[in-house]
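Review this today:
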Amino acid sequence: MLEYTPYVLPFIVSTVILFLLGIYSFRLRDKVETARLFSLQNLALGIWTLCYALELSSTSLEGKILWAKMKYLGATTGPVLWLVFSLYYTDRRNWLTKPLKMVLGFFIFFTLLVVFTNELHHWYWTEITLVAGFPETQAGHGFYFWVYAVCVYLLILASVLIYINYYRKVPVYFRRQSLLMVLGSFVPLGVRILEDFFGWDPFPKVDNVILFMLFLAILYAGALFGFSALKIVPIAHSQIVQNINSGILVLDVLGHVVEINPFAAKVIDAEYISPIGRPLNVLLKDGPKINYSPEMTERQEEEIEFESHGQKNFFIIQVSPIRDERQNLIGHVISLIDITERKKAEIELEHLARTDVLTSVTNRRHFFELAEVEFERFKRYGHPLAILIMDVDHFKKINDTQGHLAGDFALKSVAAICQTQLRPTDIFARYGGEEFICLLSEVTEEQALETAERLRKSIENTLLNFADKQIPITASIGLAFAQTNQTLESVIDYADRALYQSKNKGRNHVTIWTRSYLDSPSQHS
């Protein structure tokens, strides 16, 4: 039977706050990893205080004993969950090893077993009596009560120390969260320490530890609703450094590595050695060349290219000084940002922009970009330069009789043949349709004519096979030699006029432009 007593009021308030905190945080379980643990912790503490309130309200000794036992459903799981939550919240979950889990589980199971079978052995309570004027029972304690008390002390003390250490390391905003968590964890423990060791018992008729859970509940509520303790959790420095997809090296003032993340270790081939404490220049002996010196006082950034394992890599390197509170230089942090894929995409786009799609040789636009540079060099130094224009003979006939695929095959074949006969310094491009153009630098007239004839004969001597059919193919070529008083466009025009004369001669010819062709029409006029 139960009856109201004013003593239960603070415990009912604590229970309501703890249950509401548990319900609210449980609703965040799918969004916040630690919400489920926080919810279970508060529900356990709520069961602890509720059962104690029911114990105080019971009118019979048997009822009080029943609820005294029931409260240990929360009094054992609560402190354990307290510790587990503190480890998860402060990113120390790796401390929660399998042996520790087994010990904590055994503590809960064995304590409940001892409490609920106390009448058989009296390990926990030696006697339980009612005293007039006291709403709770008075009990003599067996040896296991002190084992339990020590374990709870250690669990809560460990949580407090974990929160204090966390408080020291997190940014200011998160310190306000953790301060409330520290105080909330420490208040019940502090009260118990004052009572057990100094005799301070401000409320002698009730359990001070459970009573001061009201303050714990209020402080937890402040952390949760005032500073979003569950929703806004700082990400551990180690997680960022270890998992970021960029290289990070931290150097001391002498240029020795004091921290390196896995990405950076892989980049500089230091995965299988211990780079900590080594000078950076030693580690980078065969790696990327970074513009760094221990005396650098300003942030610097550069883009570098280096080869590793037979593959080109591109990185943006950022070197930033690290200063202490007095602005003294204490080291540097080097960031290696991998831009290899971006650079490869840029190179590919650039290649596509300057390459003819069908023949894979330089396209007309890029030819003029390169040719203008060579022509300016010719005008400055007077080195000989020639322009060669080639036209595939009777190309329309190939398209009409063999089909456009055969025509495409013929153009690709001509381009491939020419590339095998030309020097790397020659600028060869598709000029348009079935025409190709080539700039020959540093050549005499005799050498240019020899090159043109070599191209013509190579094409003539190649019998193309396409779709089980043979395609005979020849080309007409026009040559023109640059003069210092000319423009690139005029030289190209003269080569085009010479090409026209080759066609007039029956095709499959090479013609060098002379002034006698000045009045002949250009193919492109």
